[in-house]
Fold each of these.
Amino acid sequence: MATTELAEEAVTDAEPDDVSESTGAAETPRKISLNFRSTKVKLLGLLFVVMGIEAAGMYLILPRPSSASTGGSAAGDVLGDGSSDGDPSEAVDPNDGVEVEIDKFNTTNSRARLGSTLHVSFSLIAIVKPNNQAAFTEAANQAHKARVREAVVKIVRSASMDNLNDPDLSVIKRQIREAVNKVLRNSYILEVVIDDFRQMEQ
């Protein structure tokens, strides 16, 4: 009898330990799963922080769209020459400028119409600010004369038939102004005048 009572006591003493061990084993996966979830949340939070920093960096680094449409020429904006093209308050009316002849041109265009060649001739005149006249004349007609001629001829030789037939030649004038200003690394030219324009198809 005594041994049976002792065995029962041992069993009853052992049961709580087994239960606590089994509950401890059951609690451990819960702790692990909670840790796994909190790690996931931390990783997602870190990911959002990094993405936010990247977005802020891109916002600060990339140029604003409005800077391209301020009214100044693309060449003047890129070169940063300090000209007043982008500031409307300091903009110069081309009517206040002086005319400076760049050169006379006689070239061909075989791209405007397939199977035929156009002979194009004209005189090119630039309108510049009066205080830039001497500097522009020296730069365009002496220091950079060959490069200016090359830029102008390239534009005329690659012009489309529509651009060549435009009564104002507005696209060609704009392209020439931008190209020559880029060659001279300064926004000297306010406007381009094309005089005695002739084209003959062959």
Amino acid sequence: MRESTRAEVTPKGGSLQAAILLAITLSCCTGDAPPATPRAVPSELETKVQRLLESGAVTRLDVDRQTAFVEPAPWNATSLEVKTGVGAVLADYFHARNGRDRWAIIRNSHDGKQLARYGPFGLSVD
């Protein structure tokens, strides 16, 4: 379990509003988001993600960080339309699992480099 330093940090002046703002800022900017509460995923979506994992194109998922790791060679050889579809499926899956916004980060499984991000405006390929 993660240790939190939020209770130890008190802004000057000691106001409750400042302390709350600081806690929110630390949570958002340091990647120390509270763990997601697992939720039920529709079976059709679960099947699509399972196929991606079984094919080896997606090697692993980090649901808390809404990140998928992919093999770079097949990813780079794939059309933009297919990449967009994969991004949409992953974003839907992460949203269904943890209830956060509908987005996904796609990273190289070998070095962790970000390859793409799928969000409200579609796919952004790095």
